[in-house]
Each structure stands twice: as structure tokens, then as C-alpha cells.
Amino acid sequence: MNKDAVVIDELRVRSGRHDVFDGLSLRIPRGQVIGLLGPSGCGKTTLMRSIVGVQRTHGGTVEVLGEPAGSRALRSRVSYGTQGSAVYTDLTVRENLRYFASVLRAPRADVDRVLAQVGLTSHANQSVDALSGGQLNRVSLGAALLGSPELVVLDEPTVGLDPVLRSELWTLFRQIADAGTTMLVSSHVMDEALRCDRLLLMRDGRIIADTTPRQLLADTGQTDAESAFLTLIQRDAGHETRRSRREEER
Length: 250
What we know:
Elements: E1 4-15, E2 18-29, E3 33-37, H1 44-52, E4 59-64, E5 67-68, E6 78-81, H2 93-104, H3 110-117, H4 133-145, E7 151-154, H5 163-178, E8 182-187, E9 198-203, E10 206-211, H6 213-220, H7 225-249
Parallel strand pairs: 3-8, 3-9, 6-7, 7-8
Antiparallel strand pairs: 1-2, 1-4, 4-5, 9-10
Helix pairs in contact: 2-3, 3-4, 6-7
């Protein structure tokens, strides 16, 4: 088995005349919590869409679990949670999960398993529109876990939540990864970086660091993730300025 869940080589994505990615390459290992962090607009969502196979690309390759991204063979092996709620508010929690289980052709017993996994067993028969923000996010996560996917891709699942709820969800991500599932989670909240096994830090469509939380702090000499990321941005801006000058001098 390939040790990498995702292998991307020279990925190119364009939006109009703008290059979102111009030859992006990276590897994402299996069975870890991978944090994809960076400011809004840096390309996180486009990268995730490319991995799950719903993004139009213009060059390069994206291989997921040994298959081309978006291939039929990956439909039950890869799950994607988009920004915002993806469930029906006029149904109960259980009704939502039963519906998505039927769409995915997941075993009916998966519903009870997922309810327990995301801590919503006691809310199973409650209407979704009566849930708190954190509980609503858990329902969406539960839908993403149906069928026991090998790779779960979550686009900013903690956005808009208070620190306590964010902490609870990250604890859940860790439990899921410890059970063998690869978790790719995007965020623009830098303190969430320290909860990951590995970090992909993005800026302007580029990976400016592929590292671990401990190594990030050590390499930058900082004690918190936000300061470390700002240090990396300053370094990256300096590299870009020097490169531009060299090109102008040619």
C-alpha cells in the first residue's frame, strides 16, 4: 500500500487569466491529521476540490489512494465536507444520516455508529433546525463519516464556532485519525495548527511550508503558530522580492 493518501505533481489550475496553481506538488501521508492553513483566498478550497475530483484542472496529476482523483473507485473511499452545513434542517439528525447512508449505499448500521462517533446519540431524534452551531457541524461531519471513508476532506469545519466547540471538534478529528482515517482539514485559524500531525501552510497558491507543529516553531523561533506563520510570510515575501529582482536583471 502506498504510504501517501494523496500525491500531487505539477498541478495547474486557472481561474480566468489568473493562475491559482502553477505547478503545485505535494504529498499527504495516510492516517494523520493534516492541517491546510492559510489566509482566505490563498487556494485552500481549490486544492481540496482538486483532491476530491470536482475541480477543473489545466495540467499535472492528482492521485488519491492510488487512483486518479474523482474516479468512480474513490466514491466510497473519499468524503468531502464543504464549508457550511450540508444537511436538511427540516429533518431529524437520524433522518438526515439515514438519507445520506442510502445515497452512499452505506450499511444501515452505520447511522448508529456515526451518531456515537460524533456524540449525537442523545440528539438523534431532534430536528436539525433546533441544534446549536457545534451540533450542526457534528451532523455534517457524521454524514461525511458514513461508509467509513479512508480520506475525509473538511473545508473550514470550525469556522464561526467558539473556542470550546472548536476544541471539541479537533479532539474528534484526532480520534478519527487514530482509528486509521486520514483527515485533511483546512482552517484560517492559526492556533488550530498545533493540533495537527502535519501542516501545509499556503500563501498565494503556493505551499510555503510542509512541516510539523514542533518543527514550525523551531524553524521560526516563535512560541505560537500565528507568529510563526507571520514569520514565514515575511521570509516568503523576501524570497519573492529577490527572485523578481534577479529576473529583472537578466
